[in-house]
């Protein structure tokens, strides 16, 4: 016989009560950060026994993974007591609040209670207040896990933006300059997610040819750090939206159906204000009539984007260290002004938009213009005619100062081949060289 139920222990007679067990795990996680549900145990603690088949534990695991969000650390153990089998399911996690089947619960003694809107609001506001300490905690990753080339490029861009005055000397010094080293000498979480070379961030990208979202035309899961994911998100949208062309004399001008500066603001915002926790991911979805950008972790509760755009409230930053790094290299222009610039850009271009902010995250949707509205040309992806073109643009997007020799070495072709492809990209209006051969840089025109 086991002891009584409590705020961290729950008994279920059989796995027929699996849904109720998942709700109990959710409630205990929100109250104490851990909890255990025993299957095969009666309410009074006496052992009833639980049949365990080939799929029993996998069914339990699947039910939890499908319906408990975000996913905590789970262990499932089988024990024998008095020749009877019981199953112990333990959950641990700090990424509160957790939801089960789309609802939030907390634990009061041995009962699971639904959190009403006021409780949930206070919970989120309390979490937002303390969440930034996550950035400062050690990631356990050493400085040798940093993408040094990306860091050097970042320092160069931040200096060009006039927001840093620092000549790169070594990785450790640069990271200290950006406050990205934890007390133990390892990367803090902000540093790991910004510059880690092990793909700590997941960006899901999907494109559907129609609005019914039945069959996808493209599906991609991109793993990178924050800076890489921002660039990837920009590329994905720009490559797959439509452009209108206008000839003015000898000059050909291409205009995207959605203003690039508005896309950029929303993409950067989605990573600056994201909740980086296990099981969550940013997402970009493109359909025939919409482009949607989603990030886990909503805005300050009780506010909406227009409050920030109007200046009625200041910008409450979920990740101040990450936001500061994005500010220094010019990705964030000024705190709290991104929505204002987005709304103005959309108004100037006649682009409609909508947004949703809830306990799960923030979703911003751009309405695409009808293909009948104007003559259109393909997105940039159709102007990159082969893999070499694509590799050149990918490398330039990561380092605009890269040389033709370095491009040839990375791609594994000769310099004349690189020169030939660059000539074609320039003629098709995809790429431009700014400045001299020695001190200039590449500019992607998309």
From TrEMBL:
GO terms for molecular function: sequence-specific DNA binding. Residues 5-113 form the Schlafen AlbA-2 domain. It holds the Pfam family HTH_24. SUPFAM superfamilies: Winged helix' DNA-binding domain. InterPro entries: ArsR-like_HTH, AsnC-type_HTH_dom, RecG_C_sf, Schlafen_AlbA_2_dom, Schlafen_AlbA_2_dom_sf, WH-like_DNA-bd_sf, WH_DNA-bd_sf. PANTHER family: GLPR-RELATED TRANSCRIPTIONAL REPRESSOR, SCHLAFEN ALBA-2 DOMAIN-CONTAINING PROTEIN. This is DNA recombinase RecG. It comes from Bifidobacterium apri.
């Amino acid at each position: 016989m086991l002891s009584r139920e409590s705020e961290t222990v729950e008994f279920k007679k059989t796995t027929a009560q699996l849904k109720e067990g998942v709700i109990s795990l959710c409630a205990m996680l929100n109250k104490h950060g851990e909890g255990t549900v025993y299957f095969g145990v009666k309410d009074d603690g006496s052992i009833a026994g639980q049949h365990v088949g080939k799929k029993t534990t996998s069914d339990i695991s699947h039910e939890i993974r499908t319906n408990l969000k975000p996913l905590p650390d789970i262990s499932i153990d089988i024990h024998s007591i008095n020749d009877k089998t019981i199953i112990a399911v333990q959950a641990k996690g700090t990424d509160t609040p957790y939801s089960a089947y789309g609802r939030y619960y907390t634990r009061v003694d041995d009962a699971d209670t639904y959190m009403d809107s006021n409780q949930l609001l206070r919970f989120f506001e309390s979490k937002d207040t303390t969440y930034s300490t996550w950035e400062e905690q050690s990631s356990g990753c050493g400085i040798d896990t940093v993408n040094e080339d990306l860091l050097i490029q970042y320092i160069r861009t931040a200096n060009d933006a006039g927001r840093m005055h620092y000549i790169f000397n070594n990785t450790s010094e640069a990271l200290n300059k950006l406050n990205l080293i934890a007390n133990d000498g390892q990367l803090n979480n902000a540093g790991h997610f910004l510059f880690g070379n092990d793909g700590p961030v997941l960006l899901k990208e999907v494109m559907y040819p129609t609005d019914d979202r039945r069959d996808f035309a493209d599906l991609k899961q991109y793993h990178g750090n924050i800076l890489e994911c921002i660039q990837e998100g920009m590329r994905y949208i720009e490559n797959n939206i439509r452009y209108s062309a206008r000839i003015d004399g000898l000059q050909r001008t291409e205009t995207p159906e959605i203003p690039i500066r508005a896309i950029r603001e929303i993409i950067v915002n989605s990573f600056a204000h994201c909740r980086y926790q296990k099981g969550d991911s940013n997402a970009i979805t493109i359909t025939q009539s919409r482009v949607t950008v989603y990030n886990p972790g909503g805005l300050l509760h009780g506010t909406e984007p227009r409050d920030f755009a109007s200046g009625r409230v200041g910008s409450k930053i979920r990740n101040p260290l990450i936001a500061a790094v994005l500010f220094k290299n010019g990705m964030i222009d000024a705190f709290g002004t991104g929505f204002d610039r987005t709304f103005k850009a959309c108004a100037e271009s006649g682009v409609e938009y909508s947004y949703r902010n809830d306990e799960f995250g923030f979703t911003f949707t751009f309405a695409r213009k009808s293909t009948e509205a104007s003559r259109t040309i393909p997105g940039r992806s159709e102007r990159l005619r082969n893999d070499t073109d694509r590799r050149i643009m990918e490398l330039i997007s990561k380092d605009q100062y890269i040389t033709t020799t370095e491009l040839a070495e990375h791609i594994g072709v000769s310099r004349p081949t690189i020169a030939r492809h660059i000539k074609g990209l320039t003629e098709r209006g995809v790429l431009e060289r700014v400045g001299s051969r020695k001190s200039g840089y590449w500019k992607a025109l998309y």
